[in-house]
Write a structure and sequence with these properties.
This protein is mostly helical. Helices cover 61% and strands 0% of the residues.
């Protein structure tokens, strides 16, 4: 007894029996990964260049250096852009892995919900840190403040 299977020619057009309507989220996720990857390369290498190559290099990296950068709106937006792009890029990559390897619909839903929660929490906390950072908070004891803060 022989079994025969017919396979369509490799170049035959693919047709769906039912037309799916709505946004193609997989396509937009794929595009996002490529665009965010290129932007992240630029942002990360710019970040490394400024922190490690300009001025005294790695010897200048200390609390005062970071406080000075986070006091500048340009660097705040640079860092927040890096944070958002990296977290969403990583979350989307993890979502893809879950879709590929999670075997049941329930486990996929739980894992994707956990990824979404982690990404949202980290984005909110990271953004708050960048925009609300104050190296010299008012009312702090002088012995706990960095040396560059003026005692009030």
């Amino acid at each position: 007894m022989t079994m025969t299977t017919t396979i369509d020619a490799p170049r035959s057009p693919y047709s769906r029996t039912t037309k799916k309507r709505g946004v193609n989220w997989e396509k937009w996720g794929w595009i996002y990964m490529r665009v965010s990857g290129v932007l992240l390369v630029v942002l990360i290498f710019g970040h490394l260049f400024v922190n490690l190559m300009i001025g005294e290099g790695v010897n200048a990296l200390n609390f005062a250096f970071v406080a000075g950068k986070l006091a500048n709106p340009f660097w705040q937006w640079w860092d927040v852009s890096m944070l958002w792009l990296a977290l969403i890029h990583g979350g989307n990559g993890m979502r893809t892995l879950v879709n590929d390897y999670a075997s049941t619909r329930t486990s996929r839903g739980i894992l994707k919900s956990a990824i979404l929660a982690a990404v949202v929490i980290l984005i909110v906390l990271g953004t708050l840190v960048v925009f609300t950072f104050d190296a010299c908070p008012a009312g702090s004891p002088a012995d706990l403040l960095p040396s560059f803060c003026s005692a009030l």
